[in-house]
Specification:
Methyltransferase domain-containing protein; methyltransferase; Rossmann fold; 30% helix; single chain; alpha/beta; 5 helices; S-adenosylmethionine-dependent methyltransferase activity; globular; 7-stranded mixed beta sheet
Length: 177
């Protein structure tokens, strides 16, 4: 791969755009930010954004894109299950396709860190594939699984289920207690 990431088609989903358009800017974190498409969309609307991803190549691309756009977005090469490098509290957390790919123990660590990173009243917007098998292995997470994972610190306010690229997926909106 040279300069292109297969998980990022360069567009920001309408669910993210709708959120940006209906909430005042604040501090945001993009968990599993990839090459920064969604973090940069937030920054262009006035948000103070930090993106984190374990893929070094994606972070290099994101940093380059931020410089090209003249944005001060911070991109961190790190682990969403142990984001000690992130300095909360945040008003908004975005995850477009990261949580569902984690193992169950990693998901629990992610949820614990998420609850510490977000201030009370903050929003969490999540996109996740619904459960299926890929190459004989389980992949994705159910709505019940997401709710159970987040129940101690978050309240789900909305969920939409549909298909993305022919595969069942869901968008979730949560508010931090």
């Amino acid at each position: 791969m040279r300069g292109k990431t297969p998980w990022d088609d360069g567009s920001t989903p309408s669910e993210v755009i709708d959120f940006i358009d209906t909430h005042p800017p604040g501090r945001a974190v993009d968990l599993g930010c990839g090459s920064g498409t969604h973090a940069l969309a937030l920054a262009e609307k006035g948000w103070d954004v930090t993106g984190i991803d374990f893929a070094a190549q994606a972070i290099r691309i994101a940093r380059r894109r931020a410089v090209q756009k003249g944005l001060g977005t911070i991109f961190v090469h790190g682990d969403v299950t142990c984001p000690g490098c992130l300095d909360g509290p945040y008003d908004f957390a975005l995850d477009v396709g990261c949580l569902f790919a984690l193992k169950s123990d990693e998901r629990a660590a992610y949820a614990g860190h998420l609850s510490r990173l977000l201030k009370s009243g903050a929003w969490y917007l999540l996109f996740a594939w619904l459960p299926r098998f890929v190459n004989g292995r389980p992949w994705g997470i159910s709505p019940e699984g997401v709710d159970l994972l987040l129940a101690s610190h978050f309240r789900r306010t909305r969920m939409t289920i549909g298909e993305e690229k022919g595969v069942s997926a869901a968008w979730y909106w949560y508010c931090r207690w």
